[in-house]
Amino acid sequence: MVTLVLAAGCSDTGEKTVVNVLPAGSLLGPMETMEAEYEALHPDIDIRSEGHGSIQCIRQVTDLHRDFDVIIVADESLIPDMMYIPREDGNGTYATSYIPVARNEMVIAYTSQSRYADECTEENWVEILRRPDVRTGISNPMLDAAGYRGLMVLLLAEEYYGTDGIFDTIVTRNLADEPVVVRNGTTTEVVLPEMMKTSGPGLVIRDGSVYLLSLLEAGGIDYAFEYRSVAEEHGLKYISLPAEIDLSSPAYADKYDDVTVNLGYQRFTSIGSERTGRPIVYGITVPTTASHPEAGEDFAAFVIDSMAAGYDTWPRPYTPPSVSLSQ
């Protein structure tokens, strides 16, 4: 149990304190539950959430300078990489600490209407996704952690299955500008083009992984790289992947580290250009720019405890350390 850092409060006028939260899109479902439970305990607090891809969440504060009190991303490494940088006003950095809160794993989501749904298995999913009439969806790796993780899964799959050309067939051939793939022994780096525009029908890209769900359900795509919790929350069928490639297990951290995705996107200065494979861990922080840091810390502690409890269709718990997010 994480001790609540500071008690949330209300203004002298009796109006509710608005706590603005930026959750990764894969947490929108759990966030609805946590908002309702927290507000029931704290009627003087109004939690307002705005979901984005994880990179976009952080950019709202570091590049667009919007006011948010809590940020929760699906890749904990994004917080030090993108927020432990000097603020434009010279008052320190955008964040000074974070806490890991949950784990997840990558899966291949689909529906009963997907092409070859009755054939696709854990043994042949690569062959199915490489078929010319199959449409695969990923989120934009420039904006969303699930996007670059989907690419990492394909790169790791080539080594795991001993099959060349998986990434090329599913991704490269369907992009207007080809990524550069550099292989050196067991390590692979992909340098993405600045604009992830598709040119072939086999690949569909959306800003966040949750935006692929409606396409799946409508038949606009056949398969999508998603987090397991998202697939389960929305009642989708999914293919579980080997732990060696699904980015779920600390035991395979050294193997995941063999793949790197270089975003190559220079428009926004705060984006760390290289994302290296690592086990999926969500992280939470209270920005130093928060208007209500005390209330933000209190809600963050509530989120940590809620995620640690472990609910069906939520990301898996991560045992949190006994520290606070006090600035």
Describe the structure.
This is Tungstate ABC transporter substrate-binding protein WtpA. One of its GO terms (biological process) is molybdate ion transport. InterPro entries: ABC_trnspt_W-bd_WtpA (IPR022498), ModA/WtpA (IPR050682). Belongs to the bacterial solute-binding protein 1 family. WtpA subfamily. GO terms for molecular function: molybdate ion binding; tungstate binding. This protein is 28% helix and 20% strand. It has a six-stranded mixed sheet, with helices on both faces. Strands 9-6-10-5-11 form a five-stranded mixed sheet. Strands 7-8-12-13 form a four-stranded mixed sheet, with helices on one face. It is built from ten helices and 15 strands. The radius of gyration is 20 Å and the shape is globular. The chain has helices spanning 28-41, 54-62, 78-83, 125-129, 145-161, 166-170, 212-218, 228-233, 253-256, 293-309; strands at residues 17-23, 45-49, 70-73, 99-103, 106-110, 136-139, 180-184, 187-191, 203-206, 223-227, 237-240, 259-262, 274-276, 281-285, 316-317. Residues 1-11 have low confidence and may be disordered. The chain is α/β, with parallel strands linked by helices and 327 residues long. It starts with 16 loop residues before the first strand and ends in a 10-residue tail after the last strand. It folds into two domains: 17-102 and 281-317, D-Maltodextrin-Binding Protein, domain 2; 106-262, D-Maltodextrin-Binding Protein, domain 2 (3-Layer(aba) Sandwich). The longest helix has 17 residues, at 145-161.
